Amino acid sequence: MQITRRATAFDPIKFEVVRNALVFATEEMAATLRRSAYSTNVKTRADFSCGLFDRELRTIAQSFNQPAHLGSLARLVPQVVREYGVANLGPGDGLLCNDPYRGGGHLNDITLISPIYYRGELFGYVANLAHHVDVGGGAPASIGAFQEIYQEGIQIPGVKLVQAGDIVPDIFKLVMAQVRAKRETAGDFRAQVAANRTGVLRVCELVERLGTEAVAEYVDELLAYTERRARAEIAQLPRGTCEAVGFLDDDGLTDVPVRLQVRIEIGDDGVHFDLSGSDPQRRAPVNSAYSQTFAACAFALKCLTDPDVPVNAGFYRVLSINAPSGTVVNCEYPSPVVGGWETAIRLVDVIFLAISQLMPERVAAGCKAMICHTGFGGVDPRSGEYYCYLETVAGGFGGRHGKDGPDAVQGHIQNTENAPIEETEYAYPIRFVRYGLVDDSDGPGQWRGGLGVQRDYQFVDHDASFTILADRAKQEPWGIFGGLPGKLAEYILNPGEEARHLGTKATIQLKAGDVVSYRTSGGGGYGPPFERDPALVVQDVRNEKVSLDRARDLYGVVVDPATWTFDPAETARLRASAASQTTS
What we know:
This protein has helices at 12-36, 40-43, 67-84, 169-176, 182-210, 212-235, 290-303, 313-316, 340-355, 421-427, 534-542, 548-555, 568-583; strands at 48-54, 59-62, 94-97, 109-118, 121-131, 159-163, 166-167, 240-248, 258-267, 270-274, 319-322, 373-379, 386-392, 431-437, 453-458, 464-469, 490-493, 500-501, 505-510, 515-519, 559-560, 565-566. By secondary structure, the protein is of the alpha+beta class. A hairpin with a 4-residue loop joins strand 21 (559-560) and strand 22 (565-566). Helix 7 packs parallel to helix 9 (340-355).
């Protein structure tokens, strides 16, 4: 634990002022970025994150946007700044980087880093990461079953996009030449610049009010306080070791499942994640960079602590990770990483499966546990311009002790919002044939899993290139403690008589009139289905989430749709019969 020596007396009120002012500076950065952005993925779906760092490049505050990004920022910013050289950064400058091997995520995740100078003295840094709709590469939205990172888009190692407050024209033109969605991308870059300016302004206002030395000392105390709080939370967790194994469907180029194995040790010194049993890296788009794996482990640990514990460098001190280089959880250059978040989010599911052995009431059953990308592009017949679109589709969350899993959510490290069909149809040349819940996709249980989503895209009047980067068509979300698994996902071209099932990692060429249907997985169930309150089953049937046959066969509840009641005698008989078969 870090010990700080204070030059001034500690004031708990000022401490709280500084603590909250730093967090709200990142939140205002986030608001600026979102309100200034052009793309649906940033302005509507909020696929971005913001952070603050001190002069020593320690994470001191983060906005609560995408948990996936927060671990990435904590690793990328220090490495990029040190490599570029602090002396080479002046007031108003901004470094651009998306390199997964320098701490980034996949190439779409582009970070802008700016120094904070107050009266000529370096105080710290602000940074924001936005998921851009396209960064070039082999398919629109820069997602696909690529075999090396060079196919995935432009790689930005850390270059000065902004100098003394102005965008450097040559660098900007070079980056923009690589991307398809030029208008949206240019707007999102400018929104990132504006967000960093906001963060610098707010921090300088705080320093002006309290003084550089006082704020720096309270930052030291904040990190020490966070570590104390985190260690106190871990002290309340059961000591022991647990482990679990899970799989991705395949790697997109072969049918071989991708193995993820985690062993977790909870001890007096913190929590250790050992991922050494995971598969070697693939020449396919399922590799996770170390930063992505770090984000998954940090998120899982944060879920087990008090929500009030801050997320900063003090929190990160209590976890350690063994992710051997050359594996799918810590791949080596130039492995493709575009699907690394699919692997990282599945890793969270596997971590919770392991933790269920020690803390059965603290975790959920298996969930969608995939980012579930959809990306497409073509020439908009209305404008004659090349357009590009990217989003991720929601799914069912797992049942939990005392609660059903939510329907149609982005779970775990994914916190993006669903794009409204009205906005998407207005801005892009597509139509949605159907958008709703997938009936009977729940994992039955005493506490059932949430339902998946059906989202059907139709390309009415033009040809387009369409990419699926997803999973869960083979590996279903598991149920726990007697719960049953959620329904598998499906990806279908032209549903109907000529329906064709598509792979989970595929790029296809569409003709005018074609429809692509996403039907995401439901969440797994928690506890035996026959122990579910029959009144809740009636409610599920009435809400058209569970069919009459499913209620009878899997929950043992006979529902009368005329009166919206259940038959107590027949329900008792069915459940008693199932219980006797189980014991025999």
